[in-house]
Design brief:
The chain is built from two helices and 23 strands. By secondary structure, the chain is mostly beta strands. It folds into two domains: about 15-80, no CATH class; about 90-300, no CATH class. It has an 18-stranded mixed sheet that branches. The protein has a three-stranded antiparallel sheet with strand order 1-4-5, with no helix packed on it. The longest helix has 18 residues, at about 65-80. The protein starts with a helix and ends in a 6-residue tail after the last strand.
């Protein structure tokens, strides 16, 4: 009976023991990164750190727990601060290679010491694109010759476009060379400070028709200010195929619109103004003899346009 009482007292004593977990505060600061765009300010971080677990008067220390927490935070900070953000179309100051929408930073050879604001699309031969559209884009930089450039690589490796539309746009000058257009429709809303249309009329020019765009990539850029836009074929061995190219509200205050090595089914111009000097006796819009055209509807009006 006595042994049973002793055993019961031991059990009660064990139950009465208390377990305490003491968590004093550990306070430290992380350095604020120079590029706050990618990491929000952390300020001071306060983390409770267990220094020990008290078990009925006996103390068991959690060795190394503090080092583990600090090491984890340091690794997280390093990962965030050294990570790079992808450049995604249509971010400017970059060049993109179709069909990818991920770009690479570009440096303008004309002004290498100044951050580029060029938007450039490189297209390898054989690439099919459904749509390229620029809407409400402002162009121009004094050191650059061209504000808008569209070019293939040769008369056998061309940017081949089903329909090209230029509307509600302005350029100081415009020049086309080394290309083919099946049908050119320039309405009376096209006003220029002198123009010279000297294409070679050719009945053999193809009426380009691009088939379905299933699986083809599109590039759309709207409401931007850039130095210039470049669309360029980058490899030989075949054409680039584009269903529709649209410039709507693209306006340059300096720099030319230059187009070379192209084949277009239908080219439509509406509400376009071209001129850099207000002189209708010197052409601001030139279609060279190296461009072959099947049919032209020329409603272009000459007026002293002077874009500044």
């Amino acid at each position: 009976m006595i042994n049973k009482d002793k055993e019961q007292k031991k059990k009660n004593k064990f139950r009465d023991r208390s377990y305490k977990l003491h968590l004093p505060n550990l306070s430290f600061k992380l350095p604020s990164p120079s590029n706050r765009k990618f990491l929000p300010s952390m300020g001071g971080i306060h983390i409770p750190m267990p220094t020990g677990i008290f078990m009925g008067g006996g103390k068991f220390i959690l060795i190394g727990l503090g080092a583990i927490v600090v090491g984890f935070l340091a690794a997280t900070f390093l990962l965030i601060s050294t990570g790079e953000t992808e450049i995604i179309w249509p971010a400017k100051g970059a060049t993109y290679t179709a069909p990818s929408h991920v770009g690479a930073q570009v440096t303008d050879v004309e002004t290498p010491s100044v951050a580029s604001q060029t938007l450039q699309l490189n297209i390898p031969q054989g690439t099919r694109l459904n749509e390229i559209t620029f809407k409400n884009v402002s162009l121009g930089k004094e050191e650059l010759t061209n504000a808008f450039q569209l070019t293939g690589t040769s008369t056998t490796d061309m940017l081949t476009i089903d329909t090209m539309i230029i509307k509600n746009s302005e350029f100081p000058t415009m020049d086309w060379a080394n290309g083919y257009v099946y049908k050119l429709n320039a309405t009376s809303s096209v006003v220029v400070a002198g123009h010279t249309l000297s294409p070679t009329m050719a009945s053999t020019t193809n009426d380009v028709v691009i088939g379905g765009g299933r699986g083809a990539t599109s590039y759309i850029a709207e409401d931007m200010i850039v130095d210039r836009i470049i669309i360029r074929q980058t490899t030989t061995g075949g054409d680039v195929l584009i269903d529709q190219l649209t410039l709507d509200g693209v306006k340059a205050w300096t720099g030319a619109f230059d187009m070379d090595y192209f084949e277009i089914g239908t080219l439509i111009m509406e509400n376009v103004r071209i001129g850099d000097d207000g002189d209708i006796n010197t052409p601001s819009f030139v279609v060279n003899t190296t461009v072959e055209i099947n049919s032209i509807q020329d409603g272009i009006v000459d007026e002293p346009v002077f874009i500044r």
